[in-house]
Design a protein that fits this description.
Largest sheet: 2 strands, antiparallel
Strand content: under 5%
Radius of gyration: 22 Å
Strand order of the largest sheet: 1-2
Oligomer: single chain
Length: about 425
């Protein structure tokens, strides 16, 4: 059932909110949550002896793992807020990796960034034409784009990279690096403070040091894009109209909003952001385009977007969760991931207590069972086997989505085929 929309005095469509019975948390709560999370991780390091959980190296690697997932999820957010499901983010990321590899080698680092965005937008254009213009089912179009992009990029790579120095059918030559940011004196001071191993203080110093030591400018650009997306979508008339297209397109059109135009633009932006995510993988996480580079991160971006309830702040939290767990698995294998098991067992029990308070007794019982199972695994083992370490980010993402599913609300008209004139 679609959510009705109301018109403001300026004729802008404002989607009507669904009654939820819950108050929105104040904005300062986010800072309180960050402080609590850092203190909890510091305590976890003391209890488990896993000293790399909050080191500056871990935080820096987490940034690199988080940004491509966040950008892909942000692309999905733009598209779905306009009512178009974009499951083709993975394919658009693949196009972006090739764009970064080709344009970066021939024209330089910033050309690689623009090339990645352009190639992603090309995928977005195909998806927009199929879904918005011709009314193709959104899922079918997205899956087709993923398949076509994979084959097209493999063909283009064999056509353009074979014979070049360091290039071949499965990879491009090395791409020039984008500038990085380092503030030497501040980095050294924070590094000294980090090594003193002071409770909470050293953890904060490690996070700040990661922000001023060899930080890729693309990380900064990605965070700026995240903030701009929030401002545009929630603080401008353009964003208000775009979100109205995803809530009640018929009501939006009846008030003069060009619904198909807004949907088309949103999907193009979605493709550009997904392409930039692929370019980030090729330029920062790696140093060239490689076949299979995305590794399903487009789908994880969608999961992070759903976890974030189709909002930028929650999307960042979901992306960071996946990026952090992936980083721990790569840096210290099963040891650090094993320490996280204790944290997730405690969190599961806390979530169960909250569910009981909300009257959700069945869900609470399931959550308690999950928490107890994770706790048993922690106390009966010394580290997570290597075969399961790579699975950890995906399993944790699945668990978090399952626990958060009851508070989620997608845009009311998300995925619906809309034809011009339906308002009449």
């Amino acid at each position: 059932m679609s959510v009705p929309a109301t018109a403001t005095a300026t004729g802008i469509v404002e989607p009507a909110a669904r009654p939820s019975g819950r108050r929105r948390l104040p904005r300062w709560w986010f800072l309180v949550a960050m402080v609590a999370a850092i203190a909890a991780m510091a305590l976890l390091e003391i209890i488990t002896g896993a000293n790399d959980l909050t080191s500056s190296g871990t935080i820096a690697a987490t940034f690199i793992a988080t940004v491509p997932i966040m950008l892909a999820g942000l692309g999905g957010l733009w598209s779905e807020r306009a009512g178009v499901v974009n499951i083709g983010l993975e394919g658009m990321m693949i196009l972006g990796t090739y764009g970064a590899g080709y344009f970066g080698y021939h024209y330089g680092a910033w050309a690689a960034v623009l090339g990645a965005i352009a190639m992603g937008m090309l995928g977005g254009l195909v998806h927009a034409v199929a879904t918005v213009v011709f009314g193709v089912d959104h899922i079918i179009s997205g899956v087709a784009i993923n398949i076509i992009a994979l084959g097209a990029v493999q063909y283009l790579a064999s056509l353009t990279f074979v014979g070049l120095p360091g290039g071949g059918q499965t990879q491009s030559p090395k791409i020039p690096d984008v500038p990085s940011i380092t503030i030497g004196p501040l980095s050294d001071s924070l590094g000294t403070l980090e090594k003193k191993d002071l409770f909470f203080v050293s953890e904060v110093a490690a996070i700040l040091r990661a922000l001023v030591t060899n930080l890729s400018s693309l990380v900064v650009i990605a965070m700026v894009i995240l903030v701009l997306s929030y401002v545009i979508l929630w603080r401008t008339p353009f964003g208000l109209r775009l979100r109205a297209c995803g809530e009640s397109p018929a009501a939006a059109e009846s008030l003069g909003v060009k619904v198909l135009r807004y949907k088309f633009v949103a999907v193009l932006i979605s493709g550009g952001l997904a392409g930039l995510a692929g370019g980030f993988l090729a330029m920062v996480a790696s140093s060239n385009y490689r076949d299979g580079q995305t590794g399903g991160r487009g789908y994880i971006g969608l999961a992070a977007m759903i976890f974030g309830n189709w909002r930028p702040g929650g999307l960042l939290a979901g992306s960071s969760l996946f990026g952090y767990t992936e980083t721990l698995g790569l840096r210290q294998g099963g040891t650090s991931v094993h320490a996280l098991l204790l944290a997730f067992a405690v969190l599961a029990l806390a979530a169960a207590a909250w569910q009981v308070r909300q009257g959700q007794r069945v869900s609470a019982a399931i959550t308690v069972g999950i928490g107890v199972l994770i706790g048993v695994v922690y106390f009966l083992s010394d580290e997570v086997p290597g075969e399961f370490t790579s699975m950890t980010p995906y399993v944790i993402t699945l668990l978090v989505l399952a626990l958060a599913s009851q508070r989620l609300r997608m845009p009311a008209a998300d995925g619906q085929i809309y034809r011009k004139g339906s308002a009449g």
